[in-house]
User: Which sequence fits this backbone?
């Protein structure tokens, strides 16, 4: 389920941009490490230096103690014994973060990620809006030509950056998204909290909370009644299909009516849930398909579809 502490740890690791000793983590961060194992990895620091195990304030050189052990000399604490775990460190898997941000923003998978150097990446276009990720946006302010390289006529540029790293207003034509506030972590999935969405404003504490039966307020999350309790993240198109089916109140309707109400060009509802060969086995693609199969009743011969959990259908099942 949602874990703000887990997400804040990931954001802190991203802002640092380098491995940090495990001894530098707070007790709350240590407690959430099992929940972020998919996003962080063990890293190697300079084994000749460690953060003082006693005061956690100074990096000190490590020496052998002549008895098979190790010690360091801290300027404040003096000689301090160094255990094996004192050199353990963690780093963020930044490829994981960039992939999850792209999925949360529905960036077309055909768009590649462009490394613009010095901690700035172009993640792609989300509905024609260019999206930049920056560890420290100062390079963008120093090199405004970077914005011209990615700008699309008539569109703003979305800039994702840690709140603590924004030293100046983004400027005209740039929409700033503080990564800590505009995204939320649920298991292995990120959700985008759109500042302009009424649905997300209504459930800012947890946008995945079921509001419409098993669906969240914006239909972007679905929690299966017989599942493991973890919400499943849907793309915008998948959410539109579920929303359309929900609006028919359990009636059996044809595919063209569903897709017309959803505002999509596909022929059948399942088209937006199909998993491409290259994505088979990936939970972010397989889980929405599993949700569709669990919740949508299909009568193939008649070409009719209905949602078993829709309000009228649910009421009928309780009164029988």
Assistant:
């Amino acid at each position: 389920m949602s874990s703000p502490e887990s997400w804040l740890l990931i954001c802190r690791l991203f802002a640092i941009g380098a491995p940090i000793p495990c001894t530098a983590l707070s007790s709350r961060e240590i407690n959430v490490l099992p929940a972020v194992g998919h996003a962080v990895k063990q890293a190697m620091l300079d084994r000749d230096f460690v953060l003082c195990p006693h005061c956690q304030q100074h990096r000190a050189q490590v020496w052998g103690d002549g008895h098979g052990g190790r010690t360091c000399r801290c300027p404040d604490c003096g000689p301090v014994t160094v255990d094996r775990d004192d050199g353990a460190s963690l780093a963020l898997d930044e490829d994981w973060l960039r992939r999850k941000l792209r999925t949360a923003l529905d960036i077309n998978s055909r768009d590649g990620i462009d490394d613009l150097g010095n901690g700035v990446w172009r993640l792609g276009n989300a509905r024609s809006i260019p999206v930049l990720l920056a560890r420290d946006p100062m390079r963008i302010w120093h090199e405004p030509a970077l914005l011209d390289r990615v700008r699309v006529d008539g569109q703003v540029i979305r800039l994702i950056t840690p709140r603590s790293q924004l030293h100046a207003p983004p400027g005209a034509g740039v929409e700033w998204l503080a990564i800590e506030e505009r995204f939320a972590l649920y298991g292995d999935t990120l959700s985008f909290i759109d500042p302009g969405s009424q649905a997300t404003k209504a459930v800012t504490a947890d946008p995945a909370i079921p509001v419409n039966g098993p669906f969240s307020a914006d239909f972007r999350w679905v929690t299966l009644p017989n599942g493991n309790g973890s919400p499943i993240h849907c793309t915008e198109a998948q959410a539109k299909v579920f929303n359309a089916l929900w609006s028919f109140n359990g009636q059996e309707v044809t595919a063209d009516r569903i897709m017309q109400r959803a505002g999509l060009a596909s022929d059948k509802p399942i088209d937006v849930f199909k998993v491409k060969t290259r994505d088979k086995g990936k939970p972010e693609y397989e889980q929405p398909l599993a949700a569709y199969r669990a919740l949508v009743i299909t009568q193939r011969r008649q070409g009719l579809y209905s949602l078993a959990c829709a309000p009228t259908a649910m009421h009928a099942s309780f009164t029988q």
